[in-house]
Amino acid sequence: MDLLRYSASRFPAAHAQYPFHTPLRRRFVAVRSSLSLPFPEQKAKYYRELEAAVDVVERACRLCVDVKKSLFSSNGRILEKIDQTPVTIADFGVQALVSLEMNRLFPSIPLVAEEDSAFLRSNNLVGSVVDVVKDKATSGDEVTDDNILKAIDRGGKDACVFGPKPATYWILDPIDGTRGFVKGSEAFYVVGLALVVEGQIVLGVMGCPNWCEDCSENSIVGIQENSSSRSGIIMVSHVGCGTWTKRLSDILTTESSHTWTRCSVDSCQMVEGARFTIPESQSWKSLPLSVLFDAKRDSENIGEGNILLLSACCGSLCKYLMVASGRASVYIQGRKATSTIKVWDHAVGIICVHEAGGKVTDWAGGSLDIAADQTERRLIFPSGGVLVTNGSLHSKIIGMISSNSSVL
């Protein structure tokens, strides 16, 4: 049996210790996933870990759907964190659920995730999270206030300290695109989970409950409140095995008529013919390529010197999902001096795009260093920003960025 190792020490912040090495032992506990993976076990070294990740992301998506149904009938379900980023009971619920389940199966693997329980405690909302997690957890009897708080904090800041050596750990974004979550069905949101082994991202799972299968190319997000095409999607990736998708609605209803589909990035080779997506917090004019191209949001009015800019609110992971599935050619994000770039906004997207044939680097063409934050593994520091492409366009755009970055 393979033994994974990690260079992290799990301990309360108040009792800091030096990092140490310890073998990771896998618990062979049955995973209750409702679907098989799209490739055989003998081809995937981390098959069991991916199987567990798919299972828990499925259930996390169910949790999101359930919370969303009641979101707009209860004012107390929509909250504001100190930094004014919207956060809901679903964020905390997903982190608690994933932490509980992965700790049960792989107790030696630390978790790096977005939330901690401080806000939940101060607003007396622990009971609400317990309610939404209880029927999604393997053992509902173990879902107590205390266990929920511990599970959330297991992924929080200062939960573990990493040394400079390569480490093994999960990276979770409970809900990427929370602003989209609270808007209804008009914007995508994604549950994202990745596994890093000895410093390398080896698998990833993204669940997007409101993914629209047949949105037009210039209105990917498209406001379709009553559209049956919003079946949702689950995307899985394993190093060396490709990236695959399946309709989430089939999984959630235990239907099996739709099989896995292998993902490929698009084949666009001309920058002017590419479909771009950028962060909602950044304008096209703030990016280096704006010196060369004007951005249009209407595909029918694209002319010489124009590129098509897709509407894709909200979050980073949905944009990775779009590139990996061939809906977008390029996702470009500039690094701001006034904000930090979180690892959970990129980790699972990186492997999904790579395994679909695309490429992810910083603006200088270097690989994103997910271990740049050696102590906590929570931040990345890309030179200039992040560039995600179909691969064919990558070197061209890097060259354009290099030539025009100083102009802005």
Automatic annotation (TrEMBL):
Give a yes or no for keyword Magnesium in this entry: yes
GO terms of biological process kind: sulfate assimilation
Superkingdom per UniProt: Eukaryota
Q: Which cofactor does it need?
A: Mg(2+)
Q: What are this entry's molecular-function GO terms?
A: 3'(2'),5'-bisphosphate nucleotidase activity; metal ion binding
Which UniProt keyword terms apply here? Hydrolase, Magnesium, Metal-binding
What PROSITE patterns does the record point to?
IMP_1
The residues the record assigns to binding Mg(2+) are E114, D173, I175, D176, D345
Its family remark reads: Belongs to the inositol monophosphatase superfamily.
**Stated name of the protein:** 3'(2'),5'-bisphosphate nucleotidase, mitochondrial
